[in-house]
Design goal:
Order of helices and strands: HHHHH
Shape: globular
Helix content: 40-55%
Largest sheet: none
Oligomer: single chain
Number of helices: 5
Number of strands: 0
Distance between the termini: 30 Å
Structural class: mainly alpha
Radius of gyration: 14 Å
Strand content: under 5%
Amino acid sequence: ATDVYALDIVLFEMLTGTPPFHGQGAGEIIIQQVTASPPALVPLRPDVPVLLDRLVSRILAKDAAEKPSMNEVAAQLREMDALLGGAIPTPLPVIPGQRRQPFHRR
């Protein structure tokens, strides 16, 4: 479950240009991860497919019973790619220490 959650944090930041949780330090961020609801992708990135928004929300869910396995995540991403004909947004290279604007579709 930890690997799926870590993947989702990276995916969220790739799609929005910002992590889902913010704080002054690691402690504040950890508290938010445990107590706060993550923001939805669509308000931050309206062009994100609804299916991808739902998957990201499921992975970041607080209830472990709602979280998909890594196999489910991989299967859903492959299914989305096939359904959307490659319309899943592609990331740009990451430059350490530099914030990027949200990524755009290919």
